[in-house]
TrEMBL record:
<feature type="domain" description="4-vinyl reductase 4VR">
    <location>
        <begin position="209"/>
        <end position="269"/>
    </location>
</feature>
<dbReference type="InterPro" id="IPR004096">
    <property type="entry name" value="V4R"/>
</dbReference>
<protein>
    <submittedName>
        <fullName>Hydrocarbon binding protein</fullName>
    </submittedName>
</protein>
<dbReference type="InterPro" id="IPR024096">
    <property type="entry name" value="NO_sig/Golgi_transp_ligand-bd"/>
</dbReference>
Amino acid sequence: MAELEVRVVSERREGLLVELGRVVTEYGHVLIRQRLAQDAQGACLTLLLRGPDDRQLALEEALGTHPRVLSFESSRPQFAASEIAATVSAHVAAANPTPAVEAAQSPSPARAPAHETATLTAGADVARVERMLPNLARDYPRIFPWLINLEYAVADEARDASLYLAGRRTGTWVYKRDFALGAKLGMTDALRRIAVPALRGLVTVEHHDNQLHVRGCPLCQPGGASGGRFFCGFIEGLLAESVEPRTVFVRETSCHSSGASMCVFDISH
């Protein structure tokens, strides 16, 4: 169970808490406290909720698109912190078998070193990513305008980490929405049956062995900064719970922004 704070603005306050409370209950959450105040646009209602973390994105989408809601913001710092810790711990455990082995062997080309993953996740502008997630869920798969806006909105040093976190969270949401009822798969089948269909809703993609080739990525324009970190996180989020063991590492080895004909992502356990 995780906490979620939402802030909505509506034209009028009458019946607002009751109507939104029905939505909250429908998605398995409970109201901890609320605050209702006047706003320039009407009424501003702030709710602190608690419920299953795997239903929070759906709840945010339902609240954000409710006909009485003019604007919507959300934050869940506890959930974000716990997810980041879990993600980092999984990568650290998988990528560091023993100090002796690590000293003797370098990581395989497709495997992101644990310290790199930890740095990427810890450096994200978590609050801004959290506020954007309901918009990604609402407009999916037309999400690239939001991601491009995220690139410009965050500090330069937080850009890659924020894209990665947004990708990881979005990939996990897409997996739970579209693929979670399936059995555990081997990596090849997971790429073919989950990653490729999911990515085809966003970009043109081809599957070659343990690689995914993305053509014409909207986040990777020639001469610009690479947006590949979003896809690294997205693919990891898609596949982490579909394969055994539940550790997936994605590394971009070629990028359209650097002059390559396509973006290439290597995937490994």
